[in-house]
Amino acid sequence: MELILDRLTKQYHNKIAVDCISLNLHKGVYGLLGANGAGKTTLMRIICGVLKADSGTVTYDGVDVSSEAYRAKLGYLPQDFGYYPDFTGMDFLIYMAALKGLTKIQAKRKANELLELVSLKEEAHKKIKKYSGGMKQRLGIAQALLNNPQILILDEPTAGLDPKERVRFRNIIAKIGKENIVILSTHIVSDIEHIADTVLMMKDGRLIYQGKWQEKSGDLEEFYLKQFEED
Fold this sequence. Notes:
- The chain is α/β, with parallel strands linked by helices.
- The chain has helices at residues 40-48, 68-71, 89-99, 104-117, 133-144, 163-177, 189-195, 220-227; strands at residues 3-12, 15-25, 28-33, 55-60, 63-64, 74-77, 151-155, 181-185, 198-203, 206-211.
- The protein has 2 domains: 1-73 and 149-231, Rossmann fold (3-Layer(aba) Sandwich), CATH 3.40.50.300; 83-148, Ribonucleotide Reductase Protein R1, domain 1 (Orthogonal Bundle), CATH 1.10.40.
- The strands form 2 sheets. A 6-stranded mixed beta sheet has the order 6-7-8-3-9-10, sandwiched between helices.
- Strand 7, helix 6 (163-177) and strand 8 form a beta-alpha-beta unit.
- Helix 3 (89-99) packs across helix 4.
- The chain is globular, with a radius of gyration of 18 Å.
């Protein structure tokens, strides 16, 4: 199980959003930190195949990001994921499961399992427009897990979650990361500190730090803030 990013570059007009990034990722949780505009979302969208890099490649066990086989192994929660307000949580997951190729029986079973995992079982038949921000975010996490992804990409997944929900989320992600590759970006350094096996830090489209934080002495939040203090 190896996700290889090889010299990825993406430029918008005069701004380089991703600047020749290369990484070899294996199973585990990768926490991606960086200020707004650092290039995190652009990088994640390239890894998901939503955005095409200007140069460089993304492959998983030799399979290219543009292929159906790659997409079948991918789960993605974008920063602003789209949902249908008049659908119930259950309807939405069954609909998304159908798009991902699950049969009706598989979809129903998986939707029930995931609604329980993200603590939405009791709200399964409530319309999404009546969900709180945190509930919508948990539903988004559930839809990203529908196809048992081997690569899970989560862009700001703890936005809108209260502290108790964040702890529950961290436990879910830590468990998934034992057998899969999880990349999550967040501004909440404590979320990364608690669950990331590897910390990745981006600034101006480049990786400025990569490694296990335990290997370094000091406070991760202090180190992070110091990197961006002039911004």
